[in-house]
């Protein structure tokens, strides 16, 4: 195993606190980073109850009236693409497949010019019957969460007996021509950390791209413990016992995953080390919650309301200006691995991945 050190990227000096975005009409922040990747949460609801995400009884869901309508989502995505320079749009949740109008939202996004790259992150429940329709609507890529290949362990982790649906969904996505089909896996010490090799072998054999993600402090209940997280370096050591990993040559830039060729390729594996090897200095993301709030970072302590502007008659440029201002104030980093870190009041399911 080679190339496990993070790629160093240095932030430029922050401009004065009173500065404004000025004439740059993109989503630029005070450190010079430009957001080109929009994450859109379509719902805070989910049909699984994963132990690291939410309690068995679920959460208090947002009232329907607070959730953005399809038309409101389409308008905000259009403003982001046409006025703010967004080039990638990923639809998340909660569970985005619970949104009845998902195909129509994707089709509206695909009709924009310049056309953004469109992807979805899902738990895979219901994907088998919708993969082709999603692809026909304009979806290009998909990420499916899968933390274990064992049915009993899946049932324990997700509190639902649905692993068969997830595996069927992965196969259906591949048949529908979605490329790539990525698998997201979170390893937890003493829970599923013995499956790193098995998960990679499964993905290599089936033509999926595996991404291991360090567990982040975003679950409901504030149960995250640093010592229970399986860090990137440990994941790579475990994989290297069975596979030869060599770093890919493409620049990482703002991509969250560091990637390695598996046994010379073409298969790859990635590790998203948000905690131990953060990529904040090259972050290019902006986030829209299901209830119309802009978040400049997953771990942000503040939000900017766009839903209120939408529903009180604001014109597109007013909304774009508010969005620009929200991103201008983005912090230099999330500080997860520091003593002063405070977990956001929202959990991952309400923020969007």
UniProtKB/TrEMBL annotation:
First-level EC class: lyase
Its EC number(s): 4.1.99.22
Cofactor, how bound (note): Binds 2 [4Fe-4S] clusters. Binds 1 [4Fe-4S] cluster coordinated with 3 cysteines and an exchangeable S-adenosyl-L-methionine and 1 [4Fe-4S] cluster coordinated with 3 cysteines and the GTP-derived substrate.
GO MF annotation, one: GTP binding
Highest taxon listed in the record's lineage: Bacteria
Ligand binding (GTP): 39, 90, 121, 182, 285-287
SUPFAM superfamilies per the UniProt record, alphabetical: Radical SAM enzymes
PROSITE patterns: MOAA_NIFB_PQQE (PS01305), RADICAL_SAM (PS51918)
Alphabetized UniProt keyword annotations: 4Fe-4S, GTP-binding, Iron, Iron-sulfur, Lyase, Metal-binding, Molybdenum cofactor biosynthesis, Nucleotide-binding, S-adenosyl-L-methionine
Catalytic activity annotation: GTP + AH2 + S-adenosyl-L-methionine = (8S)-3',8-cyclo-7,8-dihydroguanosine 5'-triphosphate + 5'-deoxyadenosine + L-methionine + A + H(+)
Family annotation (Pfam families): Mob_synth_C, Radical_SAM
Nucleotide-binding in keyword set: yes
Signal peptide: none
SMART domains: Elp3
InterPro entries registered for this protein in UniProt: Aldolase_TIM, Elp3/MiaA/NifB-like_rSAM, MoaA, MoaA-like, MoaA_NifB_PqqE_Fe-S-bd_CS, MoaA_twitch, MoCo_biosynth_MoaA/MoaC, rSAM
HAMAP family registered for this protein in UniProt: MoaA_B
Function: Catalyzes the cyclization of GTP to (8S)-3',8-cyclo-7,8-dihydroguanosine 5'-triphosphate.
Protein name (Swiss-Prot/TrEMBL): GTP 3',8-cyclase
Organism the protein comes from: Amycolatopsis echigonensis
Lineage: Bacteria, Bacillati, Actinomycetota, Actinomycetes, Pseudonocardiales
């Amino acid at each position: 195993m080679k190339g496990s050190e993070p790629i160093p990227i240095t932030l430029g000096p922050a401009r004065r606190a009173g500065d404004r975005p000025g004439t740059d009409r993109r989503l630029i922040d005070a450190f010079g980073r430009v957001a080109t990747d929009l994450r859109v949460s379509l719902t805070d609801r989910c049909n699984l109850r994963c132990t690291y995400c939410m309690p068995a009884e679920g959460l208090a869901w947002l009232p329907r009236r607070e959730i953005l309508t399809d038309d409101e989502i389409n308008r905000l995505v259009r403003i982001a693409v046409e006025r703010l320079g967004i080039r990638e749009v990923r639809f998340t949740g909660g569970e985005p497949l619970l949104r009845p109008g998902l195909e129509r939202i994707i089709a509206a996004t695909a009709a924009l010019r310049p056309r953004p790259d469109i992807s979805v992150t899902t738990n895979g429940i219901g994907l088998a019957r919708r993969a082709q329709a999603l692809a026909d609507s304009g979806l290009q890529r998909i990420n499916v969460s899968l933390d274990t290949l064992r049915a009993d362990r899946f049932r324990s982790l997700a509190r639902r007996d649905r692993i068969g649906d997830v595996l069927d969904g992965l196969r259906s996505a591949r048949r529908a021509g979605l490329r790539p089909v990525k698998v997201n896996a979170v390893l937890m010490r003493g829970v599923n950390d013995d499956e790193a090799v098995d998960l990679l072998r499964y993905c290599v054999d089936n033509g999926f791209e595996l991404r291991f993600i360090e567990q982040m402090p975003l679950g409901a209940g504030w149960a995250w413990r640093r010592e229970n997280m399986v860090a990137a370096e440990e994941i790579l050591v475990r994989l290297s016992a069975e596979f030869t990993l060599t770093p890919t040559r493409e620049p990482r830039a703002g991509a969250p995953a560091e990637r390695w060729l598996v046994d010379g390729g073409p298969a790859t594996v990635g590790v998203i080390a948000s905690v131990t090897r953060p990529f904040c200095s090259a972050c290019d993301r902006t986030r829209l919650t299901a209830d119309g709030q802009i978040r400049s970072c997953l771990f942000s302590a503040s939000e900017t309301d766009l839903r209120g502007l939408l529903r009180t008659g604001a014109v597109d440029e007013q909304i774009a200006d508010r969005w620009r201002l929200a991103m201008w104030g983005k912090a230099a980093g999330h500080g997860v691995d520091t003593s002063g870190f405070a977990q956001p009041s929202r959990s991952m399911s309400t923020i969007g991945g």
